[in-house]
Structure formats: C-alpha cells, structure tokens
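Subject: Sanity check before I submit

Could someone independently write out the structure tokens for this chain? I want to compare against mine line by line before I put it in a report. The sequence has 305 residues.
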Amino acid sequence: MESPMTPDVVPASTHDMTAGHGEPLGEFVMPDPGADDRQGPRAGHDGPAGMESALEAAQSGAEAALKAAAGVTGQLRKARGAAASGQVRDLRRALDAAAAQAASLAAAASDLRAQYDFDEGAFLASGGYAKELLAAAAERGVAMFEEDERLLCYPSIVRLVPGDAAVEIDRRRERRLRPSVLVGLLAARQARPPKFRPEPFMESLAEGYDLLVARSGKKPDAVVRLYDIWSVLTLLPGQGKEYTRPEFARDLYLLDQQQVRHTKDGRTLRWHASSGTRGAGVLTTVARTGQQQVYWGVSFTGQVP
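---
Independent answer below. Compare away.
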C-alpha cells in the first residue's frame, strides 16, 4: 500500500469517541523523562565533531580562497589592459603578481580540500547526524523525535541514507545535509498544508479492518488494533518497507485532523484507546503542535446499506 501523503490516536481517552461532537479524537502525550535516553545524547550541532561545524569551517575557507581568487583576477585584468596599451613594464609587474597570487590560491585550495576530511557517510550511519539534527531542530523550536529509525517532524518523515550521503523526506531524496539548512527546509514544509487524500485512506483502513474482523469471526463493530490493520495492508512482500509504521501513524493523525469519519457504505469510524499508552501495538507520530500523539485501535459502526 502506498501512503496517501504524496511525496511531500493518541489513544482517545479510555472510552471510544466518535466524530461530530467537536472534541478532539486523540490525546497528546508529553515526552517522558526517558525520551532523551531513547534518542541518545543530543550532541550540540556546533560541537567540534559535528557536521555543522565542519561545513562552517569549509565555507569560511572557501570564502577566503574566493577573495584570493579575486586578487588573481584583478592582476590579470591589469595585465590585459597593459598589453592592450603596450605598457610592457606594467604588464610584467601584473603577470608576476598574478602568478604569485595564483600559486598562493592553489596552495590554499589544496589545504582546504585536505582539511575537509569529514566522513559524512560514517557520521550518518553512526547516529551522530540524527542527534545533531535533533539538537538543531530543538534550538530552532522545530519539534522532531525519533521513531522506528525515522525522524518525525510533522508532517514529514525523514530517513537517513548513509550509503548515498543523503536523506529522504517523505521518500524524496534530499542532499542538502547541513543541519541548519535541513531543519529550515522541514520548518518550511510545516508552514504548507500537507498533501493528503483522506477518503482513499479511509476506505483502505476499512478494508483492512473488515478483513481482520472476518478472519477472526468477531462481530462487525469489534475493536481492532491499528497495528494489525497496518500488517494486513502490507501483506505483500516488501510492502512493509514501502509503507512503514511511521507513515501509517502519520496518516492516521492527518485523517483525524481532516475530520473524515464516514466510509462510502455509511459506517462511522471510532477511535479506541489502549489500556496503556506505551503498550504493544501503539503507533506514535508527531502532531502539528509538536507533541507526540499515539493511536491504538478502531472500529466501524453502523449498518451497511
């Protein structure tokens, strides 16, 4: 199954809640004190071993080399003018200066290349980049947290691709890895409405629900875990990787926000809570407000015409 998010439940309280009464269907779960332990230490993104500092140093070195290059260009312009007018003494002087400055520029560029020995692939694979990105997001006030080897930043899901020195944002490859830049891109995506189609997703959700109810012999309005519905929707080989749990949880939240509650056959979606917010089968995503939001189960009620 493909996510209805184009590349771009919290458990409701302990009782099930239906749409149409104006109250939110999910509850927010504030991060617990152990959240940082799950994510690992949040190394400052300006630390000596960070990508941000390595790129900042390379940028500064390149700017200095550009100034030197401008000096070479200036001397060559003087040489051109002297040659055009026949001022041979000025021509030799400008050529000598250009050659000397060019040699200095070449040495500076060589040194700059040698100094930039940052192994971005290893850094992404080690988990260091994820920690630095989390720290950069926190500094900017952009909510982000880790879940199932993904970084969730509403409405985006970020996957690191160490082998290609890149990340994927909602399955689209992105090579701008500087933490401050990538956080800016994610913040800009938050300012735009998500591209989500609630009706097709609702029908897929109901189809998976019906299959599980029929297979287990439960009554038509039984409560079914959302994790089990996701498993049914990804039964085909490789589909679990194509449509991940974080994507499914994100889409549940977007459906919740769209206030779409009825299937084409007239049944009503109800959200149901687990007895514990950290129990088995709980799906976690990040809400628009930046808080964690979890979903557990659903049922579809009402007579099918």
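---
OP: Matches mine. For the report I'm noting this point. Residues 51-85 form the longest helix (35 residues).
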